Recover the amino acids of this structure.
């Protein structure tokens, strides 16, 4: 919602200021300039991006515009899930976790926490972290390095859409100049048509420069930055899972392992210690 509000503020401020200065908005509507700028920008993106990254750009752009950021209650739900899983493993043995981790969609524990269940990447990362603990195929002190390597790979992969959007944003002012030069060429060819025709074509050419800068700094680069913030939130959530699972694998008490995870969170989404203790009281006691 904030992205939409920001976009409206950018658009209204620009057009409103232009109108206050006596300008007519219809003067800015030159279809040829839009075709050149948006078409070349789309072409740059297609040339620079592998197919799977293009899909990821569309997915993350949609999530940035319409998606909802994780709140403190969502992180509290994650911590409660981790605690309940750890308590189940401690009371009934690690083998008791296999039915939950093997098919989380049918797990009675996971079904209590839909926020985690509906995030495939977080769910997969958690299950992949617990499986070596259950199987006993890795030493507890090696698990954190394994999960950290996976987390680093995910972080690098998440950076690709941001870098490509920034490339397009940085290219748009230059693309606007290309559109303006094409407009000037048309202007030179229409000098014999009189001052009115020349003035119209010069206005169209200048609009190309304006649109390139406007789209770059008003929309594309800010969108890339919002996606970057969303990626940071996802990374924070995965880090929280890693800290908790690694601590549990090393033999820490469930509450201690979850407390370490809680302290890894940003202050804006970090539940208070007492709040966490009250929330997990009674969980996993059966």
């Amino acid at each position: 919602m904030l992205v939409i509000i920001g976009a409206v503020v950018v658009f209204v401020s620009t057009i409103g200021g232009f109108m206050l200065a006596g300008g007519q908005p219809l003067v800015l509507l030159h279809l040829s300039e839009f075709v050149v700028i948006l078409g070349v920008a789309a072409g740059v993106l297609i040339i620079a991006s592998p197919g799977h990254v293009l899909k990821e750009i569309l997915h993350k752009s949609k999530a940035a515009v319409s998606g909802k950021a994780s709140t403190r209650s969502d992180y509290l739900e994650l911590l409660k899930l981790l605690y309940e899983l750890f308590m189940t493993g401690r009371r009934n043995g690690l083998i008791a976790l296999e039915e939950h981790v093997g098919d989380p969609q049918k797990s009675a524990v996971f079904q209590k926490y839909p926020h985690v269940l509906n995030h495939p990447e977080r769910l997969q990362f958690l299950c992949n972290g617990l499986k070596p603990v259950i199987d006993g195929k890795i030493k507890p002190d090696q698990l954190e390095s394994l999960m950290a390597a996976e987390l680093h790979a995910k972080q690098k992969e998440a950076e690709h859409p941001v870098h490509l959007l920034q490339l397009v944003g940085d290219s748009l002012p230059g693309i606007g100049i290309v559109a303006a030069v094409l407009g000037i060429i048309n202007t030179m060819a229409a000098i014999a048509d009189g001052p009115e025709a020349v003035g119209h074509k010069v206005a169209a050419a200048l609009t190309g420069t304006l649109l390139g800068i406007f789209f770059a700094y008003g929309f594309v680069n800010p969108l890339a930055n919002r996606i970057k913030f969303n990626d940071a939130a996802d990374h924070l959530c995965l880090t929280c899972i890693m800290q908790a699972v690694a601590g549990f694998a090393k033999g820490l008490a469930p509450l201690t392992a979850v407390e370490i995870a809680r302290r890894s969170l940003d202050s804006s989404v970090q539940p208070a210690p007492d709040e966490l203790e009250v929330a997990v009281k009674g969980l996993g006691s059966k």
Remarks:
- The mean pLDDT is 89.
- Residues 45-159+221-280 form one domain.
- The longest helix spans residues 195-249.
